[in-house]
Amino acid sequence: VRSEQEKRLKEAERGLALLGRVNPLALEEYAALEERQRFLTEQLDQMDDSWTKLAALSQSREETLKNELQELKFNSDCAVVEQLLANHEVQLQSVNLPEDPVEAEEAIAKHAENQKVLASTKERVETIKNAAGEFADKEDVEKRVEKLDNQYAKLVEQSERVEAELRECHDVSSFLRDATEASDWIKEKKLDLEST
C-alpha cells in the first residue's frame, strides 16, 4: 500500500511540476476578471439598448423628414397650379372681342392655344388630388384640392363661354364685313347703271 501511495505521490509531484508555479493571487485575479466581464457585459447591454433607441429615433426622424418633404412638395405643386389657374383667369378676363374678322380669327386661334394649356393643367390637378390621399391630416389638404378642382372647372366653363363669344364675334364681324362689301358693290352697280 505504501509503495502505491509513494507511486501516487510521485505522479502527483510530476503533475504539480508540469503545472509549474502556482499563483497564490489567482483566485483574487479571477474574481477581478469576473467583475470586469460583468461590467463589460452590462456596458454592452446598455450600448445595445442605446443603439436600439437611436435606430428607432433615426427611423422616426426619417419618417418625419419624409412627411415634411412630401408636404413641401405638395404645397409647392399646389402653389404652381394655383398660379397657373390665376394666369388663365387673367388671360380669360383680358380677351377683347375684335370687330375685324381677321383679328377675330387670330383671337380664336390664340384662345385655342390657351385652352390647350388649361387642359394640360387638369393633369397637374389630378396629380395633386392623388398626392392628397397620402396625408394623415387630410381635412386641410382635401379643402385645398377641392378649391383647385373647383377653380379649374370654373375656368373651363369660362373658357368655353369666351370661345363661344369669340366665335359669335367672328361670325357677326364676318357678316357685317360681307354686308358692307355687298352694300358697296350694290352702290357701285347702281352708280354704273345711273351713268349709263
Give a short overview.
The protein has helices at about 1-20, 25-95, 100-130, 140-195.
Structure description:
With 196 residues, the chain is mainly α. Helix content is 90%, strand content 0%. The chain is built from 4 helices and no strands. The protein has helices spanning 2-19, 26-93, 101-132, 138-195. Helix 2 runs parallel beside helix 4 (138-195) and helix 3 (101-132) runs antiparallel to helix 4. The radius of gyration is 47 Å and the shape is rod-shaped. The model has no long low-confidence stretch (mean pLDDT 91).
- N-to-C SSE string, H for helix and E for strand: HHHH
Class inferred from helices and paired strands: mainly alpha
Count of DSSP H/I helices: 4
| Computed Rg | 47 Å
Helix content bin: over 70%
How many extended strands?
0
* Low-confidence segments: none
Strand content: under 5%
The rough form would be described as: rod-shaped
The chain-level mean pLDDT equals 91
Largest sheet report = none
Could you tell me how far the N terminus lies from the C terminus, measured between alpha carbons in angstroms? 175 Å
